[in-house]
Fold each of these.
Amino acid sequence: MSLFSASHTVAVLAVAQGLLLGAGMCLCVLLFLWIKREVRAVVVESRQRAEAHEQILSGLRKELDEARAALAAAAAAAGVPRGRLDLTRRAQALRLYRQGQSAAQIASTLGLPRGEVELLLKIHRLRDAADSSETPRPAAWN
């Protein structure tokens, strides 16, 4: 005859199963708490990095503003004109002229000296007149 009966064996197995289930749940809770702590540490570290980057960015913005101010002061001291009539602005000026704007309006819109705009428009009109006549143009105008 065995020491344990069948019902006793089933009871022992049920208790063992319950203990294993409880141990597994405890391990899950411990794992959850450990992960939660790690996530908090990562969040804190990320915030610290973001603050450090923000401070660096703020310093760089300040340096950029100072450099822009120094450049503007140097340009003003050197007598460099504020607006230059480059190819893009020349095309914009001619487009505005074709739309019917005056030299003063074009100069104001593009931030250019009025005299430069008037000179550009005069050259443009002369060139158009030369194109419409049979007179050959100078090579420099081509």
Note: The radius of gyration is 41 Å.
Amino acid sequence: MKNILALLIVTFSSICLAQTSEKVKGEKFEYSEVGLNDYVVTNIEGKTKEEIYKKAMNWVIETYKNSDDVLKMNIENEKFRIDGIAFGVIKVKGISLNLGYVIEISFIDNKYRFELISLLYDNATDYKKMPNFKTDPKFVKNFGNSPAEIENYFNTLNKSLEIYIVGKAEEKW
């Protein structure tokens, strides 16, 4: 009987420990019961990964005031990481706070992946993995519209990158 009980405990423990958290893809960034989805894949038809990478690097230079400071990792034509700050995106009881983030953008022919690695506030709270951030009454009371603001910030940032890669409208002089 002890052997059966020990076997059940070991089997149950193995099953629980073997479960890994898989990354969650979305059409856009949106909070769900488990938190914010991990990444969005954007199709860029007719462009090689090298072309997409080059345009994305130019986007970083034009988008970020100190592009050399925010670019934390760069593997040419494969991927890079950006360490940025979204000013005033988090609102706690009416007070605006900044949100630090790390994103990784990786490239293959005809598409790129925009992945949120972390979303942190000064006290090391990871806002990416906060379950029920949009629906829990405690969070709604304290953070108000912050989840929607975070979603909007990263969806807008990703859309800005997509538009830049596809090509800006030519200005007529």
Note: Residues 37-166 form a domain with the Alpha-D-Glucose-1,6-Bisphosphate; Chain A, domain 4 fold (CATH 3.30.530.80).
